Amino acid sequence: MAKYLFPAIFDQGNDGSEGYTVTFPDLPGCITEGSDLQEAMSMARDALSGFLYGMEEDGETIPTPSSPANVQIEKGAFVALVEAWTDIIREETENKAVKKTLTIPKWLNDAAEKEGVNFSHLLQYAIKERLGIRKRSS
User: Fold this and answer.
1) Predicted TM-score (pTM) of this structure
2) Which domains are assigned to the chain?
3) Which of 13, 65, 125, 134 has its CA 20 to 30 A from that of 101?
C-alpha cells in the first residue's frame, strides 16, 4: 500500500473565526480548510490523499516529507502529521460505477426483460470475455 505521512500547518488566522486553513509546505497547491479542528483534520487527510494520488497518476515524484521540527509557522499555528493512503483513493476511483448508454432493438430488450436479464451484469461479463479478463486486476 502507498502510505504517506506529511507535516501540515493548521492556521486559525487572525480574524477570530473558529476554522482552520491547512497547508502542506512540501506540496505547494495542496490546501484545504475546516470549520473546526476535527473537520480540518479530516479535510487534510482527504486533500493529501487526493493530491498525492494525482501526483502518482501523473508520474510525478513524491517529495520527501520535511521533519515537523523544521517547518516554519506563524504565531498561533501548529504543525501536525497527516497520514494518507493513496491505495484507498485508487480503489474507490477504479471501482466507481460509470454509466453507459446503449441502444439495442426493442424485440431484444423485451425478450431480455422477460427473462430477467441484468443488463449491467451482462455487459460487464461480455466486455470481460471479449478482453480476455478472467478477474479484475488490482
Assistant:
1) 0.70
2) 3-94 (3.30.160.250), 97-138 (no CATH)
3) 134
